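Lab notebook, page 48
Experiment: co-folding of the full assembly
Goal: obtain a model of how the components sit together before planning crosslinking
Operator: M.T.
Materials (sequences as entered):
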Amino acid sequence: EVQLVESGGGLVQPGGSLRLSCTGSGFTFSNYWMHWVRQAPDQGLVWVSRIKSDGSIISYADSVKGRFTISRDNAKNTVFLQMNSLRADDTAVYFCARDVRLDSRNYWGGSAGFWGQGTRVTVSS
Amino acid sequence: EIVLTQSPGTLSLSPGERATLSCRASQSIGTYLAWYQQKPGQAPRLLFYDASNRASAIPARFSGSGSGTDFTLTISSLEPEDFAFYYCQQRSNWPLTFGGGTKVEIK
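Observation: model returned without errors.
Model output:
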């Protein structure tokens, strides 16, 4: 059974940092793109970042570029989201997700087949 | 950025009725469209990817279709557990974007 478990959320002051982690099990982690998607309170879904199976391709939403860093450790089946210079509008539930398809040449990922339960990040003084 | 417009915003139907949800893209995205279902307090659940590929364990009453700029999610006969929010999402261009969602509520 595919499982994704996020951790690292919490309350942080504006300008602060948090590091989110997402550990996968039940599948070969190193074969899949991984994604972070967030949802502000009572709002829709926003794709934050993605990382290719081997970490060689990374993308960020403009709203987080230069502040957030996605990375992965395939030996530990874990993807990370380092969030710096946090702002009030970063307040959201952050979901990690595994791509629906096995990675392959010329595949850019982008359909989230399995999701974690989410971790809540609140940026407030 | 590709904008996805979902309609209607809210769909009020009774169990057993047919639901038809629309998603329109601001430019052609081929068939690079996914549909998700989300219930309050839960993570989204993938229903379809690449327009019409049903995700695992998704019941046959759900169907996805479309290409280019116009896409449809159809629920042939609503079950009580189908009342939820539904989002479309494109993977044609970065940034990946979601539509604003359609709420399917009990009439």
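Interpretation: DSSP finds no helices and eleven strands in chain B.
Next step: discuss with group before ordering constructs.
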